[in-house]
Amino acid sequence: DQWRAVWPTITGFTFLTDEIEGGVSTDNTTAWAIVPWSSCGYAEDGTPFDRPGRATVVFNRKSNGEGWRAIHTHFSLAPGTPQKSWGNSDRA
Q1: What is the C-alpha to C-alpha distance for residues 68 and 66, in angstroms, rounded to an integer?
Q2: Where are the domains positioned within the chain?
Q3: What pTM value is reported for the model?
Q4: Tell me, what's the pLDDT at 69?
Q5: What values do phi and psi take at 65, rounded to 5?
Q6: I want to staple 20 with a disulfide (CB 3.0 to 4.6 A). Which of 10, 35, 58, 76 is the partner?
Q7: pLDDT tens column, 37-73
Q8: Using CA atoms, how far apart are residues 19 and 10, in angstroms rounded to an integer?
Q9: Rounded to an integer, what distance in angstroms lies between the CA atom of residue 62 and that of residue 90?
Q10: CATH 3.30.470.20 applies to domain 2-77
Q11: Cα separations in angstroms, 74 against 39, 48, 54
């Protein structure tokens, strides 16, 4: 629910998948991935600003050979990035 107020106020959200990092547990049932992302936020006066961040996803599966399921996600803005984007009034 927290993102419902964010998505309409930003543009250009993109995962930077060429920079993904991750790992798998020794029993191959838990894995994690960290991927940076970029987006554009807008100041109250409509001025655009870079709005980078990072997503972390934790995956789990019952045993080898089964499909992975995301069990936790977290999105964080890069330090120093304004928390609020006011939106771009020029967007259609």
Answers
A1: 7
A2: 2-77
A3: 0.82
A4: 98
A5: 90, -20
A6: 35
A7: 999 999 999 999 999 999 999 999 999 889 999 999 9
A8: 22
A9: 48
A10: no
A11: 16, 24, 8
